[in-house]
């Protein structure tokens, strides 16, 4: 079972390469690798979120949060999400009428922030209309590059860091989200409002001696906000970029949308499952540009690599090389091309299902992946139904990446020219 390793400064990093071994790490032998390995500490309250927590605390939180993402809960969120999709379409039409190109990341981010704020926290964010909204500002702060922080976290003892007042996220993030969430919760308490959304679930867990503190509620809400829009916004931006470059794929996707929304009918929640070509496009874009280019894990219990004498010690960092595997010709035909047919069942060899890790795998699988698919499909309908996109002269034929952020971001703005179709 092939695997390798590198040193990050003084710290050894194990890199499993064999797909069977990767599955063992992520699923079968999960109890040896149950942590993401990111800095977290009780003294740095925002770091105590679902992604960074480990062990029983993670298990309890995950089991309570999972029911917020069931199909019936998603269906309840659909109307809100669609409403903001509609507002995004108005903004696109506006730019088109004025003959202005569209900044895709900006438009996409505004839509997604508004959706997450409303669906999960019941907050009406003004992001769609206001380019300088607080939500956007703090979202950008969370996403900003962090090579120095990674260096500090991997070299210095975490207790010492926490003692020195170290914070995983930039300092200004904590007071903003703490007061925001406190205001929403107070308002709900005062007016006996029960919304049964994520915030409600988390807050109920903090009442009457429940397993969470109020700071835990703030931490996981903040993480959900960041995880919910950063990953989806980069994915949707890459997809619009590739659709502008590949007009045949754009036409085919638009035909599917128009055949579902016949005679200008509005897209319903039930229609989402009919968008089969959109599913292929989404899977393919996440193959080409996985939001997490490597899946992180930390060894939580000593592990002997099966069939060898090699032992991975507790505390070792593990990186699953998602980008490299998803771009490997051994598993995918034409791996360097964006081609949704790469993901169609006829073109996949029998290994392919195991070589796609864009939402992670095993017990730590992305909690919001169905929500992400829903918000991206709605956005695609709103983008493509009445408008065509081409690369603007300011947008390069080959994108480069910001390598120092957690989520794989394009370094350039993605600017597209728009044309009305009808
Ligand atoms: C295209 C969009 C998205 C992508 C590509 C994505 C990808 C991922 C990946 C790769 C992981 C790590 C999984 C692992 O370690 O095995 C993850 C974790 C997570 N994601 Fe997503 N995600 C997306 C959207 C969302 C959304 C919309 C939400 C919720 C609002 C969300 C919530 C989470 C949470 C809570 C975790 C941590 C799960 C845990 O540790 O138990 N994600 N996501």
UniProtKB/TrEMBL annotation:
It is a peripheral membrane protein. GO terms for cellular component: endoplasmic reticulum membrane. It holds the Pfam family p450. It is found in: Endoplasmic reticulum membrane; Microsome membrane. This is Cytochrome P450. PANTHER family: CYTOCHROME P450, CYTOCHROME P450 6A16, ISOFORM B-RELATED. InterPro entries: Cyt_P450, Cyt_P450_CS, Cyt_P450_E_grp-I, Cyt_P450_sf, Insect_CytP450_Detox. Its cofactor is heme.
């Amino acid at each position: 079972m092939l695997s390798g390793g590198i040193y990050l400064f003084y710290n050894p990093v194990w890199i499993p390469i064999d797909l069977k071994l990767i599955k063992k790490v992520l699923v079968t032998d999960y109890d040896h690798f149950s942590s993401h390995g990111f800095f977290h500490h009780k003294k740095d309250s925002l770091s105590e979120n679902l992604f960074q927590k480990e062990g029983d605390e993670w298990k309890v939180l995950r089991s309570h949060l999972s029911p917020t993402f069931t199909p019936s809960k998603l269906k309840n969120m659909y109307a809100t999400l669609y409403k903001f999709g509609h507002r995004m379409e108005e903004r696109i039409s506006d730019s088109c009428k004025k003959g202005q190109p569209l900044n895709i990341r900006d438009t996409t981010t505004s839509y997604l922030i508004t959706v997450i704020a409303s669906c999960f926290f019941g907050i009406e964010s003004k992001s769609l209309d206001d380019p300088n909204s607080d939500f956007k500002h703090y979202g950008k702060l969370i996403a900003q590059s962090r090579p120095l922080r990674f260096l500090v976290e991997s070299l210095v003892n975490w207790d010492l860091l926490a003692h020195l007042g170290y914070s995983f996220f930039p300092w200004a993030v904590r007071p903003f989200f703490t007061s925001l969430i406190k205001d929403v919760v107070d308002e709900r308490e005062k007016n006996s409002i029960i919304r049964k959304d994520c915030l409600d679930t988390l807050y109920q867990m903090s009442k009457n001696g429940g397993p969470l503190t109020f700071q835990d509620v703030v931490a996981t809400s903040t993480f959900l906000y960041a995880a919910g829009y950063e990953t989806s916004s980069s994915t949707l931006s890459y997809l619009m970029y590739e659709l502008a470059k590949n007009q045949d794929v754009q036409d085919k996707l638009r035909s599917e949308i128009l055949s579902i929304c016949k005679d200008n009918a509005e897209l319903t929640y039930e229609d989402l499952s009919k968008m089969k070509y959109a599913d292929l496009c989404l899977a393919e874009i996440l193959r080409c540009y996985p939001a997490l280019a490597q899946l992180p894990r930390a060894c939580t219990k000593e592990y002997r690599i099966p069939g060898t004498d090699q032992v991975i010690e507790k505390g070792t960092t593990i990186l699953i090389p998602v980008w490299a595997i998803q771009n490997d010709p051994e598993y995918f035909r034409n791996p360097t091309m964006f081609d949704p047919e790469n993901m169609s069942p006829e073109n996949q060899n029998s290994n392919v299902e195991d070589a796609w890790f864009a939402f992670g795998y095993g017990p730590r699988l992305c909690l919001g992946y169905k929500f992400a698919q829903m918000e991206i499909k709605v956005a695609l309908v709103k983008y493509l139904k009445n408008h065509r996109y081409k690369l603007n002269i300011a947008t390069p034929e080959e994108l480069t990446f910001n390598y120092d952020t957690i989520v794989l971001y394009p370094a350039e703005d993605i600017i597209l020219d728009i044309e009305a179709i009808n």
